[in-house]
Write a structure and sequence with these properties.
Length: 366
């Protein structure tokens, strides 16, 4: 639970989205996970039972175990500066990115100035960082993408177990819809259409972004209720927020529908068909990268993501039924380019990232 100097290692996240990246290295290095949000603590304890975890409150902080751990820590590992909570503590700071994170631009590198050490998800991120040596104020390790350590190995037994947890027919193809957050995601534009158009030989699992599922607008809450009623009637799918982990759902999905964000890249581990919605057009991503000073070679590589999947907007589909049927009927179409894209982003050795992170943390950063 400590570094070489005997001080504790702390892993911190406000958001549940940070938990999949922080849990695996904590399992290797020891230490304690701390959050200031109850739902994040619950999510962590459900996904990493047995690992030490604490809730942090700013009120009467000096009386809390979380404050004592943060004050004594040798290093605090997080996916963002969280200055409002962590700014008062003197520990070294280490960064583990949430999600596959593609936006390591000039602006992105400058935003890492508060960290002493940064863990990189793979060779792609290392190339991006090395484009701008004059901006680097921290040490870095190419650790790999830590969540991959917890992605299940597919097997018939594993598939049956997951389908049983979801109460779905294992004889049907599973379509997994994992939209991005509000702003660049497709939830309100596509969810109802996908559910309505689902082919008869498929079942559907939806995992909306937590903000829209748990803290949605009035329109998002109404959409959630309509979808729940539809699934109650048709018995061919569900919105699953907690029954299965995200990697479990990816591991048994025959087809992923997503928005060209982290799930799109993560699912390439299984090398299966995908559809990108493109409700947030690829041209906007290109403009964002250019605006933030990304090198043109890196932009071109990231735009290659769209060559790894079907595009609902670009491939001329009449409806989601046709898109899903086409993608499932041609599983080989994108496999070769997916393999090349995945290897370029994450490298060839992907399961020992947590051990590499733990080695650095226990040795000491800085």
């Amino acid at each position: 639970m400590t570094d070489a100097g005997g001080k504790p290692i702390v892993f911190f996240s406000k958001m549940a989205q940070g938990v999949p990246s922080l849990g695996p290295p904590q399992r290797e290095a020891g230490g304690v996970f701390i959050t200031n949000r109850r739902e994040t603590l619950t999510f962590f304890q459900r996904n990493f039972p047995g690992l030490a975890a604490l809730k942090h409150r700013k009120l009467l902080a000096s009386l809390q175990a979380s404050h004592r751990c943060l004050r004594a820590a040798a290093v605090i590992v997080s996916g963002a500066p969280h200055t409002s909570v962590l700014g008062r503590y003197q520990a070294k700071r280490a960064m583990i990115f949430h999600g596959t994170f593609r936006n390591l631009t000039k602006v992105g590198i400058q935003q890492l100035k508060d960290f002493d050490h940064v863990f990189l998800n793979g060779p792609r991120m290392e190339r991006m960082l090395n484009r701008h040596p004059d901006l680097i104020t921290f040490s870095a390790t190419v650790s790999g993408y830590t969540p991959f350590a917890d992605f299940p190995q597919p097997s018939p037994e594993h598939r049956r177990n997951v389908f049983s947890k979801l109460n779905l027919d294992p004889g049907k193809k599973l379509v997994f819809y994992a939209p991005a957050r509000r702003g660049c995601g497709s939830w309100t534009a596509c969810a109802e259409k996908i559910a309505t158009d689902l082919p008869d030989d498929c079942v559907l699992v939806m995992r909306p972004h937590p903000n829209q599922a748990l803290h949605g607008t009035a329109a998002e809450k109404a959409l959630y209720q309509r979808l729940t009623a539809l699934f109650d009637t048709r018995r061919n799918g569900l919105i699953d927020l907690a029954t299965c982990s995200f990697p479990e759902l990816l591991s048994v999905a025959d087809l992923l529908i997503s928005d060209a964000t982290s799930p799109t890249e993560e699912f390439m581990l299984y090398n299966r068909p995908q559809i990108i919605t493109e409700t947030y057009p690829r041209g906007k991503w290109r403009e964002n990268y250019q605006h933030d000073g990304m090198h043109q070679d890196d932009i071109d590589e990231l735009m290659g993501l769209y060559d790894c999947a079907w595009s609902f907007e670009k491939d001329g589909f009449k409806n989601w039924r046709q898109a899903i049927q086409t993608a499932l009927a041609e599983p080989e179409k994108h496999r070769g380019i997916q393999r090349r894209y995945f290897a370029s982003a994450f490298g060839e050795t992907i399961t020992d990232a947590p051990a590499r992170v733990a080695e650095v943390l226990t040795r000491g950063v800085g």
